[in-house]
Design brief:
single chain, mainly alpha, 73% helix, 0% strand, globular
Length: 71
């Protein structure tokens, strides 16, 4: 929601907290990766996309996002 409203800093804050509470949820890592990517932090984005894929190897969105930040 925050990302859609252009408030990536707020999204990062909430998503980091959510990942702390539920570290095994692939979607949270994917969304945190997106927020980092929007902020220009490709290293952190890559880390969270990789984690999302480890948790959900079938995650096509995370796979595409990972390819995007690796290019």
């Amino acid at each position: 929601v925050y990302e859609q409203q252009g408030d990536t800093a707020q999204a990062l804050t909430h998503l980091k907290e959510a990942v702390k509470l539920k570290p095994d949820v692939a979607d949270l890592h994917y969304n945190l990766g997106l927020a980092y990517e929007l902020e220009g932090d490709r290293t952190q984005a890559k880390t969270h996309y990789e984690r999302a894929l480890k948790l959900d190897p079938q995650g096509e969105d995370a796979r595409k996002a990972l390819a995007r930040v690796q290019s």
